[in-house]
Design a protein that fits this description.
Structural class: alpha/beta
CATH architecture: Alpha-Beta Barrel
Number of domains: 1
CATH class: Alpha Beta
Largest sheet: 8 strands, parallel, barrel
Order of helices and strands: HEHEHEHEHEHEHEHHHEH
Helix content: 40-55%
Shape: globular
């Protein structure tokens, strides 16, 4: 189902993100998570893509498994880094032939084992270039949906880590939208004021496509530190830090506090007419299920 149809039918949308497991234990955990969450009827699920395309086949296999064994529309991530135009075209052909309807187009990160990676040699320098290429593919008529792939792009409520100038940042965002993006899915954030401000700045910039808010509950102190690294400087409000401090390092207390905080975030976002909420699940279901229960959402 094309993302336009998904977002029209589900207002607000509620969706999840998974990453492709590299081990059998990881796969078992993920498929248990999918089984736990499928009854909640997510609007869609996204599947991440490793730096430099390192999980290309794993991502593709997981996307197809979700499509073939569940009723959830999958949205694979696709990144610019390390790919030629020919490689991207072949990936799009495979997804189109499998009936995958949507793509999340990202610039991506270079592989961590290649600190001297030269981005200047990539065929796609920016996410907007990838969006334009997908639009060209759509125009070729090789997708079974006459509209081609629905295209999502990333947004950064706390600011893009590579663009300190926030006026210029919105210019880049507008380029992705003008290239043909259908919706924005944001990076995780912990202060809803950042999201509200970002949404308003998008409006000022003439960006009027749906903006889906990315939420990730803190479930452990170690995870919080890793989260900050992955999100390249995610800001933790003092309110959250103070609450976690009251947990005194107790793992179960930290988990309850993090889930409660994320649930409050979601309540406020919904009260402010958010277009959708995207849960970064880390391939686990407990936190998301508890937040759903807090929101008054039950299984079908």
């Amino acid at each position: 189902m094309h993302i336009d149809d998904i977002l029209q039918q589900n207002s607000p949308s509620l969706s999840f993100e998974f990453f492709p497991p590299r081990t059998q234990d990881g796969a078992d955990t993920l498929y248990e998570t999918i089984a736990d969450l499928e009854p909640y009827n997510p609007s869609f699920v996204s599947v991440t893509y490793g730096a430099g395309g390192t999980t290309r086949d794993l991502t593709h296999d997981l996307v197809l498994r979700i499509k073939e064994t569940t009723g959830i529309p999958p949205v694979p991530h696709l990144t610019c880094i390390g790919h030629s135009r020919e490689e991207i075209e072949q990936i799009l052909i495979r997804y189109a032939e499998a009936g995958v309807a949507n793509i999340l187009a990202l610039r991506g990160d270079p592989p961590r084992d290649q600190p001297d990676y030269d981005r200047s040699k990539d065929d796609f320098q920016f996410a907007s270039d990838l969006v334009s290429f997908i639009k060209e593919f759509n125009a070729s008529g090789r997708h079974p949906d006459s509209r081609g792939f629905g295209i999502g792009v990333a947004g950064f409520p706390e600011g893009h880590p590579a663009t300190q100038n926030r006026v210029l940042e919105m210019d880049y965002m507008k380029q992705k939208v003008d290239a043909g993006a259908d919706y924005i899915c944001t990076q995780l954030f912990f202060d809803n004021h950042d999201f509200m401000d970002y949404r308003e700045r998008c409006d000022i910039a003439g960006i009027n496509i749906p903006i889906i808010a990315g939420v990730m509950p803190v479930t452990s102190l170690g995870g919080m530190k890793r989260m900050a690294e992955l999100a390249e400087g995610a800001r933790y409000p003092a309110k959250l830090l103070r609450a976690l401090e009251r947990g005194n390092g107790d793992a179960s207390s930290v988990e309850r506090i993090g889930i409660h905080y994320a649930a409050q975030q979601c309540h406020e976002l919904l009260d402010n007419d958010v277009d959708g909420i995207h849960f970064y699940t880390l391939n686990k279901s407990k936190a998301t299920r508890e937040i759903y229960a807090s929101l008054g959402l039950s299984q079908s």
